[in-house]
Amino acid sequence: MGATLGAMYRDHHRWLLGWLHKRLGNAFDAADLAQDAFMRILLKNDDFRVKEPRALLTTIAQGIVANLRRRQEIERSYLDALALMPEAHAPSPESRMIMLETLVALDRMLGVLPALTKEAFLLSQLEGLRQTEIAERLNISVPTVKRHIARALEQCCFWEEATA
């Protein structure tokens, strides 16, 4: 016998909030993520029946917490890079937000690729290495480098944020 989403929210929201608060140590983030968890369920289930609501909520919450931590890591790295820039070249707060959102989207998009594919692509795009240099650095053949880069480009071209 399954529960409706309303009953699930009523019966398990407080539990989920506590679960998230315990992991995050922050009541505000916990409240936001608890709402995100229920929103994800609402958006994905037209015919809602769940036999193990806490197991479902735990699985969803773990993914949301992982995404939050990854985003925080990206933001920290970005801010560290900005700190190295001369103040005169510092981007505006709006530009910073746009860049951070772009970096997070790129991370999601490339995160589904195998590590070697992602590394070959980043070496070509960020470091500007030639395919022969990438092949040498990764100890793979040039045709393999071409395949990895083509796969990454295909991922970039056909990525849909909704699939993240």
Report on the structure:
- The chain is an all-alpha fold and 164 residues long.
- The protein is 76% helix and 0% strand.
- It has seven helices and no strands.
- α1 (5-24) crosses α3 (53-83), α2 crosses α3 and α3 packs across α4.
- The longest helix is centred in the middle third of the chain and has 31 residues, at 53-83.
- The model has no long low-confidence stretch (mean pLDDT 89).
Low-confidence segments, ≥5 residues, pLDDT <50? none
What's the tally of helices?
7
* Overall pLDDT metric: 89
Order of helices and strands: HHHHHHH
The N- and C-terminal alpha carbons lie at a distance of 30 Å
DSSP strand (E) fraction?
under 5%
User: What composes the largest sheet?
Assistant: none
Radius of gyration: 21 Å
How does the overall form come out from the CA principal axes? extended
Number of strands: 0
- Provide the helix percentage: over 70%
Find the structural class using helix and strand composition.
Answer: mainly alpha
Short structural summary:
By secondary structure, this protein is an all-alpha fold. The chain has 7 helices and no strands. The mean pLDDT is 89.
Throw out a few tags for this protein.
164 residues; mainly alpha
Question: What topology emerges from the helices and strands here?
Answer:
Elements: H1 5-24, H2 27-44, H3 53-83, H4 93-111, H5 115-125, H6 131-138, H7 142-158
